[in-house]
Amino acid sequence: MTPAARVQAAIDILDAVIAAAARQGASADRIAAEWFRARRFVGSKDRRAIRELAWSAIRACGDAPASGRAAMLRLAADDSALTALFDGSTYGPAPIAPGEPVAVGGIAPRWLEEALAASGLDAGERGALLGRAPLDLRANRLKTTREELAARLPVAVERTVAPEALRLPSGTAAESWPEFAQGLFEVQDTGSQLACAALAVQPGESVIDLCAGAGGKTLALAAALENRGHLLACDIDRPRLSRLPERAARAGAIAETRLLDPDREAAMLADWAGRADAVLIDAPCSGTGTWRRNPEARWRLSPAAIARYAATQARLLRVAADLVRPGGRLTYIVCSLLDAEGADGVAAFLAERPDWRADLPAMPAGRARGAGWRLTPAHDGTDGFFFSTLRRL
Fold first, then answer.
1. Is 335 known to be catalytic?
2. Rounded distance, CA 372 to CA 282, Å?
3. Per-residue pLDDT tens for 314-349?
4. Nearest by Cα to 340 from 271, 261, 286, 262
5. Closest Cα partner for 341 from 290, 299, 273?
6. What is the homologous superfamily of the domain 135-187 according to CATH?
């Protein structure tokens, strides 16, 4: 493909991403994958270049742009070489017309940037949310150690502050390696690994992963338990939860799964009421801490959506609290940096439940935020997380 044709291809993908964001449709990753699948003639070098153009344009636009072309023109505004590719050539974009609309730049829609600032993130912290994320692995200690894994991998790795973590360059195709097929590691951000570690599970305990999804954190909990004890992984999403048994088998992890009905979690977990030693709540959230991986996610949010997330999170905290035995604990996690989903929600829970107190262990990274802990890309080199460990008295 010519450079101009790559630009037009990126514009086509952007049009689909913008439309999907408006209707809460497929992710940008899925849209791009399907676009390339339908055009198998596009070579790997062209694919990388097209994807880079599209994602750079997404990061350049604060508000959702009116079109893919407007988004690409925002990127071209600071790149004369890119501007020159709007030349009207075959398969390339039409020349730029005088006064043609250009998307608005910025970190996020204004209301959302103001909410992040009110949650204690300065301009540098907010800007880092749109950087490029590295690829972190968690060595599966059911089968190996971090040092053994590092010695086996075909690339140089960096050790991060999480005890089992190894860091690779962004874009490394680690899941194609035989070590992955053998269950020696899982792809998991260092921040996610630290949030799991905050629950401090011990072999022999009874543990619930209340919002397990496809089981990334479940597998980390199984490794910490050394497969001794009882681990129950729950979710309301059947397709995601159905992926866990295969992943657990590969990892050599033992976990029971239970599909729950929305808003009936407490009733469907009545047999666990007051019995769990520990509960993990990886609550549904806005994902503001994951924009390095999903930059278009900021176009899907609204103040009403944040309020809905906060209400769901408060309800799940209450459900989890009733599952924990006296003296037991829960860890509440969101990959959001908005106080409305983090520190404020935990403060409200503690005010409502005097039989609970904050009990977060010391962390090797991050900073305190309210009754919990915050990790950010700028400060810690991880995805953005808020988490809090609470103990029942």
1. yes
2. 14
3. 999 999 999 999 999 999 999 999 999 999 999 999
4. 286
5. 290
6. Sun protein; domain 3 (3.30.70.1170)
| 236 class by beta-carbon count within 10 Å (0-12 exposed, 13-18 middle, 19+ buried) | middle
User: First and final CA of the chain: distance in angstroms?
Assistant: 65
pLDDT value at residue 66: 96
Closest C-alpha to 128, from 379, 391, 385, 386: 379
Residues ≥6 apart with Cβ < 8 Å to 152: 144, 179, 184
Q: pLDDT, tens digit, for every residue of 132-185?
A: 999 999 999 999 999 999 999 999 999 999 999 999 998 899 999 999 999 999
Domain ranges of the chain: 3-106, 135-187, 195-392
Catalytic option among 61, 196, 234, 335? 335
The confidence band for 362, taking pLDDT boundaries of 50, 70 and 90, is confident
Contacts of residue 236, Cβ cutoff 8 Å, sequence gap at least 6? 259, 260, 261, 262, 265
Q: State the fold for domain 195-392.
A: Rossmann fold (3.40.50)
> Residue 207 in contact with residue 280, Cβ under 8 Å?
yes
